Amino acid sequence: MLEIKNLSKYYGNIKAVDDLSFKVSPGKIFGLLGPNGAGKSTTIKTIINVIKPNDGEILFDGKPINEQFLNRIGYLPEERGLYKKSKVIDVIVYLARLKNLNYNEIISKANLWLEKLGVTELRNRKIEELSKGNQQKIQFICAVIHNPDLLILDEPFSGFDPINQQEIKNFILDFLDSGKSIILSTHQMDTAEKLCADILLLNNGKSVLQGSLQEIKQKFGGNHIRVNLNGDENILSSFSEVISYEVYSNLIDIHLTDNISPSDFLRKLVQRVSVNHFSIVEPTLEKIFIDTIKNEKSK
Question: How many other CB atoms sit within 10 Å of the CB of residue 9?
Answer without folding.
Answer: 22
